[in-house]
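Structure request: VanZ family protein, Haloarcula salinisoli.
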Amino acid sequence: MPSQEATADARWRRVLTVGVVLLVGSLVPSPFDRHEAFDTYGPDKWLHFVGHVAFAVTLADAFAADGTANPISGGGALCGSVLLGLAVGYLQQYVPGRVPERADLVAGVLGSMLGVGWWYRSTE
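Returned structure:
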């Protein structure tokens, strides 16, 4: 049976993995021309939403595994996920074919909120 410390380490490795996938996926240079209709409702909004759901859930789970109370774990995960979204938006301005968009941030915030809400409900 793995120790509690090994389990917590595995959870933080999951946070790192999901965070790196989200960051790299958001910063890969786009070889395609931008389609104006995608500014508000493009497929990337769905990817930001899903990525932040996954990141917020894994982050809240890791905080909780370290003994943090659930409301604080959820709040920390929400803040951490939103901060990652802000960092991605900032860094995208330096990547060819990428443009920081407010709609991406909104999708990430909504995904973070849903992820934390779902995680919190599953721990009750």
